[in-house]
Design brief:
The structure is a single chain. With 621 residues, the chain is an alpha/beta fold. The protein is built from 26 helices and 14 strands. The strands form two sheets. Strands 3-2-1-4-5-6-7-14 form an eight-stranded parallel beta sheet, with helices on one face. Strands 10-9-8-11-12-13 form a six-stranded parallel beta sheet, sandwiched between helices. The longest helix has 26 residues.
Length: 621
């Protein structure tokens, strides 16, 4: 194994193979061979090797643990949990098995059990920084944000230069809106992201950091290479090959964990319903939970075929997609929460598309196209996307015209004062930065009687932001917090807002289209990243470009001017209401036609060798 420890895995495997031939009943040789195969990404063979070791010696705790790791990498989480438990039956004081069990239980959503598993590991190894970090991740998923912060801080006390723990603590503190050392934490995180010493920080969390498009691209490429390298090796062994069929039309596969009551489904569902079945066959591949919601039923009904792949491994899911002869596979998840990029990375279709769920580059060669628009990805930023760009003529974001706007409650029912201007922002708390919050407080100070209406993302945000407001001279009660409610009720209450204030650098996406659908204008600030330009693209598509700003000063001045000139704001609201259904943003027929043209252009580009780096869809007349 010294050879393997030196990174010479192929050489180590050859030596172990000789040892197994010489002594086929040696469980240690089979276990070691499995470990090397696992490092090489040859997961099926690794599983077989560990199983062989256990067939010879069932009480071999390390082999049970290693089998669990291989099964986990295959996304066979239930079996991996069973393997970790068997390891612990043989060796109850095995800290790695407790930790691995905790990670697998977290993946399955069994969060209380996951916390118990990591806690058991810490009883054995009380000064183990990585276990505290893993515990912090589970507590974060459990939305026990205060405890997550403590666990990650403990990891850093033990190992001060632990980049992953530092980055994750920064993530948690942004959710909590705790900003005491924001600038220092961001500077530290940025340094380590760029040095690639924090490659366990998912790229999604970087989208809300004030990074440039070039920095996001740099980190994401390195992260993808580090985290998905075993998948690339498995892809080569699977050897999927593609020959264009003679059937009419294209088979489009949509891949997501969010075919349920979720923002992605609210955006995409009408497109699925509108697809031209003479030219396209639509297959939905779901690896997320079935929440038995009306939205889930609507998505299922909108697909010609709907396949639940939530309980199968990455390899099995990819083989299913490949055997279904999908032409264009559309990944709606990217690197967002609950994503399984390993499925798409196995390249089970000739054309792979990054669309809608993840507003940035995937930094990987397995993604062929990113669907955007000319505003989202202007010419000066296009070198920072590894994918070929497909530019839709209006806005990249689809919308559902069937969203019902509920009755508008009274101001009192919303917790708002009887009079006074209502600024609002209903984004998740992690999108709020100290710089933007300072601008919002300046607006409240400049406009007596006004309030800021915010989403109560978690139970700590109210106190933390009110304390921050008071520190800037704003009375705490001028921040009004709204609970999470179903979409219909949210759209109804939005009408009580006078003006939406956008976040930056991660701007409002679905939150912005919800506001515009409800008839509420939005002031936005744009940057040079995908995530920082979405709200601007939405405003451009409803003919409200005057609400797009390029500096914090212009953002403040415009918001204050609109608040102080009610006639001007009323005219903008009237135009929005009058034009809402006639502008492209909410024209689902037009949007679907453009998207279908995009799929056909991608296919033609594939057939011709894929030379075109940018595909521009002409607007429908």
């Amino acid at each position: 194994m010294i050879t393997a420890q030196q990174g010479r895995n192929e050489e180590a495997l050859a030596l172990l193979t000789k040892a197994i031939v010489a002594n086929p009943d040696n469980p240690f040789a089979h276990n070691n061979a499995g470990t090397v195969l696992l490092a090489l990404g040859r997961l099926d063979e690794a599983v077989a090797a560990f199983q062989k070791a256990l067939k010879i010696r069932f009480d071999y705790a390390e082999a049970h643990n290693n089998l669990g790791i291989a099964l986990y990498e295959q996304a066979d989480i239930e079996e991996s949990i069973a393997s970790y438990r068997r390891a612990l039956e043989q060796r109850p004081d095995y800290p790695e098995a407790h930790t691995n069990l905790g990670n697998a239980l977290c993946k399955q959503g069994h969060l209380d059990e996951a916390i118990a598993a990591h806690t058991a590991s810490l009883r054995i190894r009380p000064q183990h920084a990585q276990t505290y970090c893993n515990l912090g991740i589970v507590l974060y998923e459990h939305r026990q944000l205060d405890k997550a912060q403590v666990a990650l801080a403990t990891a850093l006390e033990i190992q001060p230069e632990y980049a992953e723990a530092q980055g994750l603590r920064f993530v948690v503190e942004r959710d909590l809106c705790l900003w005491d050392d924001y600038d220092a934490s961001f500077a530290w995180t940025r340094k380590h992201l760029m040095a690639q010493s924090a490659n366990n920080i998912d790229p999604f969390y970087c989208l809300s950091l004030p990074l440039t498009a070039a920095e996001q691209d740099q980190y994401t490429r390195k992260w993808a290479q580090a985290k998905l390298a075993p998948v690339y090796r498995q892809r080569d062994r699977l050897g999927f090959s593609f020959a264009p069929g003679s059937r009419e039309g294209l088979r489009i596969g949509y891949l997501s964990a969010d075919f349920r009551e979720h923002a992605i489904s609210h955006l995409i569902v009408e497109v699925l319903e509108q697809h031209d079945r003479r030219r396209f066959e639509i297959i939905g591949y779901s690896y997320g939970p079935d929440d038995n919601s009306p939205m889930r039923d609507r998505v299922v009904a909108a697909c010609d075929h709907f396949v639940d792949i939530s309980s199968v491994s990455h390899d099995s899911a990819a083989r299913r997609i490949y055997n279904d002869k999908i032409d264009v596979l559309v990944d709606l998840q990217g690197y967002t929460r609950s994503s399984r990029p390993q499925i798409a990375a196995l390249k089970p279709a000739p054309v792979l598309v990054n669309f809608l769920g993840y507003p940035g580059t995937c930094g990987a060669d397995w993604v062929d196209y990113l669907i955007a628009d000319p505003f989202i990805t202007p010419p000066q930023s296009r070198d920072h996307y590894c994918e070929r760009l497909v530019l839709l003529p209006d806005c990249y974001q689809p919308n559902d015209r069937r969203r019902t706007i509920g009755p508008t409650p009274t101001r009192a029912a919303c917790g708002l004062p009887a009079s006074g201007f209502v600024f609002c922002n209903f984004n998740q708390s992690y999108k709020i930065t100290p710089a933007m919050f300072h601008v919002w407080m300046r607006l409240l100070l400049a406009l007596p009687g006004s309030v800021l209406w915010l989403l109560e993302s978690n139970r700590w945000v109210r106190d933390n932001l009110r304390r921050e407001a008071e520190a800037q001279g704003v009375a705490a009660e001028r921040l009004v917090f709204a609970p999470k409610v179903p979409l219909e009720g949210h759209l109804g209450r939005l009408r009580q807002a006078d003006l939406c204030l956008d976040t930056f650098p991660y701007t409002s996406h679905t939150t912005a289209s919800d506001a515009l659908w409800a008839g509420v204008p939005l002031v936005t600030l744009i940057g040079n990243t995908f995530a920082s330009r979405v709200a601007g693209s939405l405003l451009r598509t409803v003919n409200l470009t005057e609400l797009i700003t390029a500096t914090l000063t212009d953002y403040f001045d415009l918001a204050l001017t609109l608040a102080r000139t009610p006639d001007k704001l009323a005219a903008i609201r009237a135009d929005l209401e009058a034009n809402r259904l006639s502008t492209p943003l909410f024209d689902s027929d037009r949007y679907t036609a453009h998207l279908e043209s995009a799929y056909e252009m991608m296919w033609e580009n594939y057939l011709s060798g894929g030379a075109a780096r940018i595909l521009t869809v002409e607007p429908r007349s």
